[in-house]
Amino acid sequence: MTLEFKRHLPIISDKKLGRNQRCHCGSGKKYKHCCLSKDESERPTEQKELVGKIVKWMYDQKFVVDLMENILNNIFHDRMFEKEAINALIEALIFEGLHKNKRMIDHFILKANLTENEKAVYRRWRDESVFSFFEVLEVKYGKSIKFRDLANNQEYFVYERSGTYQIDPGDIIAQRLLPRDDTWMIAGGLGMVMSDKEHGNIFKKEFSRVIGNMSEHMFVEAHYSRR
Ligand SMILES: [Zn+2]
After folding, report:
1. CA–CA separation, 5 vs 144, rounded Å?
2. What is the distance in A from the centroid of ligand 1 to the CA of 137?
3. Cβ atoms 10, 214 nearer than 8 A
4. For residues 13-49, b (16+ Cβ closer than 10 Å) or e, as one string?
5. 44 CA distance to ligand 1 middle (Å)
6. Is 44 in contact with 180 (CB distance < 8 Å)?
7. Handedness of CA 189, 25, 45, 168 (dihedral sign)
8. 196 pLDDT higher than 80
9. d(CA 139, ligand 1 centre) in Å
10. How far apart are CA 16 and CA 165, in angstroms?
11. 127 backbone dihedrals φ, ψ, rounded to 5°
């Protein structure tokens, strides 16, 4: 089995509850027209506000918008893409994107109008957030998820609501986790899920061999030339 991290992640997307599927509450309506926004609104408010602040700042920088357009065109051409794809891209840009040899989140901490407390939280996110492939160990629907980092077996307890309906124990997920007090939270939306057990097992075996190459994929060099 070949894992091509350079071009794309080998994702088998088989979400248990997609946006267009029937809601978990039994109403018969599509999830996106029913409980999705309620579930999402019950994320910790400080997370929503602080993540929102970076995303808004990113969209105010012309070079970021141009860069995102460029990357999306390269990845998707004229195909349709889901909102989640853009969220994942923005998140990768915030934490891994380089512009003028500095990470995007450092530009943000320097230039955005932030209080000292906010700066401390963002620095903690920058220094302690974890991006990896995780195995889902335990799901408490509407409440929490327990992940195991496939790179080092470390376990993470994550408070999450809407995301719990989209994964099952045994799934493998590419995700960034942010520290929150002494637990963890999911950055942005739920990452890419691989639910197929057979491929999941192969992936777990191969993972340690390819982990060295993987980080290379995650770094997006933010080249920008003014037209
Ligand atoms: Zn519902």
Report:
1. 29
2. 25
3. no
4. eebebeeeeebbeeeeeebeebbbeebeeebeeebee
5. 20
6. yes
7. negative
8. no
9. 19
10. 7
11. -85, -30
- Ligand 1 centre to CA of 186 (Å) is 22
Tell how far the Cα of 173 is from the centroid of ligand 1, in angstroms: 25
Angle of helix 62-76 relative to helix 45-60, nearest 10 degrees?
90
Question: What is the tens place of the pLDDT at every residue in 19-50?
Answer: 788 887 888 898 888 888 777 665 556 676 88
Say which amino acid occupies 124: R
Query: What H or E segment, with its residue span, contains residue 47?
Result: helix 45-60
User: Would you say 176 and 191 are in contact if contact means Cβ atoms under 8 Å apart?
Assistant: yes
- Read off the DSSP letter of residue 219: -
C-alpha pair distances (Å), 145 with each of 3, 47, 120, 178: 27, 17, 26, 14
For the chain, the 3-state helix, strand and coil shares in percent, each to the nearest 5, are 45, 20, 35
- Give the global pTM: 0.69
pLDDT per position as a tens digit, 199-216:
667 666 666 555 544 444
**Ligand 1 centroid to residue 168 C-alpha, Å:** 19
How much is the pLDDT for 20?
A: 80
CA of 20 to the centre of ligand 1 (A): 12
Please check whether residue 210 is in contact with residue 3, taking contact to mean a CB–CB distance below 8 angstroms. Answer: yes
Distance 23 CA to ligand 1 centre (A): 5
Rg of the chain (C-alpha set) = 18
User: What does the pLDDT look like over 162-171, one tens digit per residue?
Assistant: 788 888 888 8
